[in-house]
Write a structure and sequence with these properties.
The protein is about 25% helix and about 45% strand. The strands form two sheets. The protein has an eleven-stranded antiparallel sheet. Helix 2 packs across helix 4 and helix 3 runs antiparallel to helix 4. The protein starts with a helix and ends with a strand.
Length: about 300
């Protein structure tokens, strides 16, 4: 009887933990005023001159687009000056997920698998670009204490959009991500290392502090323009997600080209969407484009 009680208590504890995790993940949703602030802080190179600080702001609508037992898909839409909508980043939260796609450098991504014991009660955050290409993935458990909800990870990522066309002195952003969720919104705090990665060697160029501050707005009318935009575009992006899933489900190392015939992936997607095809036609065309941008590497998956 004692063993049965212990088993039931353990099961209830796991259920309560997962429920609190899901509440925290969904706690990021809503209509927010958001500020993006970044500042370089330290460099080991005395000749390096710290770059100007970066500041931006806007109205961001964050919402759930898919949900199942062990997966929550959240989309971000950014409204600039309350008129222009940008399909911002997307994040998939998956529970006890053994598969991890890690950025290496210059368009190269490597798959690995966690040991089953490592992933217990943990969540993987899989972040995607505006065209739903991978951006970074990290794994950790949520912490809930004193009314605060925290998730943090350290992951490698490509250059951020604010710098990828401007900088050539580094090729990996090692992101220290911390997500704090509270009643008024959430804070995405970052301690980042800008690294020049060569074979077998990482050279730190400069460190950076980042604060993305999401404050929920009491008047959700501020997000009407983004909601209207998504109603018009959601079906197409569901097709894009489905075709990218076919790529990721192969569990292979991949390389992603930045350009094909001088065009970016997002430009091809935009052209397909404007054709107003049915879903089956969209998916065929999206798949054909992805086959041009994605190169598979059949190397065996590594173990973490």
């Amino acid at each position: 009887m004692k063993k049965i009680v212990i088993f039931l208590l353990a099961g209830f504890g796991a259920f309560a933990q997962k429920s609190a995790d899901i509440a925290a993940i969904k706690g990021q949703c809503g209509c927010h005023e958001v500020k993006f602030d970044y500042a370089e802080t330290f460099t080991p190179n005395k000749e390096y001159k710290l770059k100007d600080q970066y500041h931006a702001k806007g109205t961001e609508y964050v919402f759930v687009v898919e949900e199942s037992k062990d997966k929550i898909v959240i989309q971000h839409l950014l409204a600039i000056a309350d008129t222009m909508v940008v399909k911002h980043w997307r994040e998939d939260w998956t529970y006890e997920d053994p598969n991890l796609l890690s950025f290496y450098k210059e368009g190269v991504w490597k798959y690995s698998q966690f040991d089953k014991n490592h992933i217990k009660k943990g969540w993987t955050q899989k972040v995607y670009e505006v065209d739903d290409a991978p951006r970074y993935e990290g794994f950790a458990q949520w912490s809930h204490a004193n009314g605060k909800h925290l998730w943090e990870s350290k992951v490698d990522a490509p250059l951020p959009r604010r710098e990828y066309t401007k900088r050539k002195d580094y090729n990996v952003l090692k992101r220290g991500n911390r997500i704090y969720v509270n009643e008024t919104g959430y804070l995405h705090e970052q301690d980042n290392d800008k690294i020049l990665r060569k074979e077998g060697n990482d050279l730190l160029i400069v460190q950076e502090k980042g604060i993305n501050d999401y404050r929920k707005l009491s008047d959700e009318k501020a997000c009407e323009v983004t909601k209207k935009w998504w109603a018009e575009h959601s079906a197409f992006w569901a097709d894009v997600r489905a075709e990218w899933a076919q790529v990721f489900d192969k569990h292979k190392n991949i390389s992603i080209k930045q350009f094909v015939r001088s065009k970016m992936l997002s430009e091809y997607f935009s052209a397909i969407e404007k054709e107003k095809n049915d879903s089956a036609t969209n998916r065929k065309k999206i798949k054909d484009v992805l086959n041009q941008f994605v190169i598979y590497n059949d190397e065996v998956i590594g173990k973490n």
